[in-house]
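All the exercises in this workshop are built on plain-text protein records. The record below serves as our worked example for the rest of this section.
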Amino acid sequence: MALYQLPGSNAVEAAAGVNKLMAEAKKRFPEGMDYAVALDTTRAVTEGIREIIQTLVIAIALVIVVVYIFLQGWRATLIPLLAVPVSLVGTFAFFPLFGFSINTLSLFGLVLAIGLVVDDAIVVVEAVERHIENGLAPKAAAFKAMEEISGPVIGIALVLSAVFVPTAFIPGITGRLYQQFAVTIAISVILSAFNALTLSPALAALLLKPKTESRGPLRKAFDWFNRVFGHATEGYVRWSAALIRKSGVAVVMLVVFGIAEFFFSNKVNSSFLPDEDQGYLYVNLQLPNASSLQRTDEVSRKVESILAQTPGVERTTTIIGFSLLSFVRTSYNAFFFVTFKDWKDRKSQQASGGNRFRFLAAGDSWSGHLWRIHVCS
């Protein structure tokens, strides 16, 4: 029994509804009767969302660590971190207006947006702290800082939006793929700028205080980091100044990097969509024309036997007398739905993908049979 998703419906919700319905129907099955889901194409979507959520958590943790190392104070660190959930949750509020949903593209956009939405708040915190160190009260320092940096904050948001928004107007399927990704980042960046002009200065006036001299292992670690970072900054400035004075060297380096980019871009494999482990394969078997259904069945059973012994394969469903590639019913065709085990059970490269095509070579030793197999992942 094959079930297909209706246009406009949610694939994950539809699959969950089918599984629930079948679990209830099983209670009324005759004794000894059972069912199995031979192929569920939403497993890859669910696994992808789970991995993106893990990446989202890791990205937030890295942002916390990096911001704390540079700002070197929990009060200063708290302000940019509060801007992250406000911007991300606020982005979800705009999804219905654009007809978007929470999927792998939008979540991937949010992963990249995490590193962008904290920038404006960090600019505000550093500006307010500088005025506090100069003797102003936190509230007065916040007002003074916003007079100076409101324009740059708006400019940052507009520049970043100008980078991502045009990709939403790319026509065709490519534009459709990039649309949610680009618009998600653009919305989060604009909300981040709004937070930097409103929430961040208010929090800075309430939380920031004049820094006091501290001691201990953490202070020593911060002092070491400041020295290393200062030396790196000075070296970068010296190299930049040298390249500005010697523009010819900069042009030569630009040409060299351009040639290298052209060379390596031709070496890297390209595709419309990246190759990913979807958790299943389609296998099409074709024997010589006019082969009998009995002979096709015999070869299909040998293919099933090899697939059953292949590491990582969980289940195989065979349809004899039909080709999914040509949608033609013939006696010399067979089709297989090959479902792999769960991703966590296929950690090795062999079980994940390297061993998928082992059964192709095995068929050459079957004397008396001339056949062809097509594999589609």
About this structure: Residues 2 and 39 are 9 Å apart (CA to CA).
